[in-house]
Give the backbone structure.
Amino acid sequence: MKNEVTPVYRPRRDNLWFARTRNYTIFVLRELTSVFVAWSIAFLLMLIAAVLDGSPAAFAALAARPWMIALNVLALAATAFHAVTFLNLAPKATVVRLDGYRLPAWMIQGGNHSLWLAVSLVITFFVLRGFR
């Protein structure tokens, strides 16, 4: 007599499972934006390498191409979405207590977003000022 294995029933998986719920859709979109965050880092490293090699003109020519501008605008939007959703998740991952009182989520989120805005303004000031 043969050893017969009973087949296990496995229901078909829906490829768009995440599109059925808003929270899952945002989660998947946030994870997909990580690709654009990686591109932003690679682009910044290419800029640093061009400056160190003494060839910023070649990098500027590459960066001025329309497809590169479109890619970087898309990467900026995706990176901003990634950052906002990351900062909004902080209260779920971090419990901050002051004198035994748990800070509400809006205070943690507000602090995170305020700090992000402050750092962005300082960087913008120095970039527009030209580091003089």
